[in-house]
TrEMBL record:
<protein>
    <submittedName>
        <fullName>Group 1 glycosyl transferase</fullName>
    </submittedName>
</protein>
<keyword id="KW-0808">Transferase</keyword>
<dbReference type="Pfam" id="PF13692">
    <property type="entry name" value="Glyco_trans_1_4"/>
</dbReference>
<feature type="domain" description="Glycosyltransferase subfamily 4-like N-terminal">
    <location>
        <begin position="20"/>
        <end position="169"/>
    </location>
</feature>
<dbReference type="InterPro" id="IPR028098">
    <property type="entry name" value="Glyco_trans_4-like_N"/>
</dbReference>
<dbReference type="GO" id="GO:0016740">
    <property type="term" value="F:transferase activity"/>
</dbReference>
<dbReference type="Pfam" id="PF13439">
    <property type="entry name" value="Glyco_transf_4"/>
</dbReference>
Length: 353
């Protein structure tokens, strides 16, 4: 299939969760020999209007990522020029999504709108109109599905496709040293690591060890809190680690604790659960993490530091594992096929109409 993606912003401009999701989808489809194009703002130094990287062809619609109006004016015609089988557009900009919809109409191709929702989804008039565009709306979790439906999307057009992990890579990575609990996330204002630290302080009289993976502006604050709670000697702040190192840590850990206040899809937790961890989630209204552990015998959902501490103790009674095939449904091959199944269905419906 010839697939045309639309997003002015990319990981080559800004390393955001939304842009990483888009890049992952591009790579998944290119790896399966589909012809993948991305219409975006220019990020390469060469004079050429296009550049190919990792089997993805990038088209410079504008020279500056902030040239939103020019991007929206040009992208419909640029899209039509490549005659795509399907157009797939990021929905974080309602104006760009509208332009992509015009491009899809000119190309006589179905339109997929990707609503990732990192940072929330606005509840204004342009966004409400945007939720009515697209033959299919792709979201990463039921949380985001609820957000887009509340803003006017037709629920029958909304499909949940999670962020992928690599099951083979989990299996092949050697476990690191055994630890009791791992936490992994950027340490910013939404990390809410204090919930875990306060729960661990309640268990000060027990023998446990914790590794915190990730860095960020709030790390010194959390290190001070661990010191104030007199538990700093049992917590390793490991900083940012490469994926292979993180997987090794997860395979060595017994519990993965997720306490962040906002999360549209808990990708690191998914890696951790596939690596055999027991999952403990502190519930928050703007986090989808609880979706991964609902109805699972090795998952706990908590609402307070006291419940979190009790869950850590209860998790100690469960078997230590280094792999869990329950999460094979999140593998890269499975997620790629979910996208392709949607594309094929839309193509068939579009051809019929």
């Amino acid at each position: 299939m010839r697939l045309a993606f639309v997003s002015s912003d990319t990981v080559h401009h800004r390393d955001t969760e939304t842009n990483r999701r888009l890049q992952t989808v591009l790579e998944l489809l290119a790896e399966r020999d589909h012809e993948v194009h991305l219409f975006c703002a220019k990020f390469w130094p060469e004079e050429s209007p296009t550049v190919e990287r990792e089997d993805v062809t990038y088209h410079a619609v504008v020279d500056d990522v902030d040239a939103g109006r020019s991007f929206c004016l040009r992208v419909p015609f640029d899209l039509a020029a490549v005659s795509p089988d399907l157009v797939h557009a990021a929905a974080d900009s309602p104006a760009a999504l509208r332009a992509a919809a015009w491009g899809a109409k000119l190309a006589r191709a179905p339109l997929v709108a990707e609503w990732y929702g990192d940072g929330g989804i606005d509840d204004d008039r342009p966004t409400r109109r945007a939720t009515t565009r697209g033959d299919r709306l792709i979201v990463p979790s039921e949380l985001v599905a609820t957000w887009v439906r509340e803003r006017g999307a037709d629920g029958d057009r909304v499909e949940t496709v999670p962020n992928p992990i690599d099951i083979d890579r989990v299996r092949e990575t050697e476990p690191a040293d055994r630890i009791d609990v791992v936490y992994a996330r950027r340490l910013d204002e939404g990390a809410n690591l204090e919930s875990l630290l306060l729960a661990l302080a309640e268990l000060r009289g027990r023998d446990w060890s914790v590794t915190v993976v990730g860095d960020g502006p709030e790390r010194p604050t959390y290190e001070r809190l661990a010191s104030d709670l007199r538990i700093e000697d049992r917590i390793e702040f490991a900083g940012d680690r490469a994926l292979e190192e993180r997987i090794a840590i997860y395979r060595g850990a017994h519990v993965f604790a997720q306490t962040a206040e906002r999360c549209v899809f808990p990708t690191e937790m998914c890696w951790g659960l596939a690596a055999g961890c027991v999952g403990i989630v502190e519930y928050h209204a703007d986090s989808s993490a609880h979706e991964l552990v609902e109805g699972w015998e090795r998952g706990f959902r908590t609402t307070s530091e006291e419940e979190l501490a009790d869950a850590i103790v209860s998790a100690g009674d469960l078997e230590y594992r280094t792999f869990d095939d329950r999460f094979a449904d999140y593998d890269r091959d499975v997620v790629a096929e979910q996208y392709l199944e949607q594309y094929r269905t839309l193509q068939a419906d579009h051809g019929f109409l």
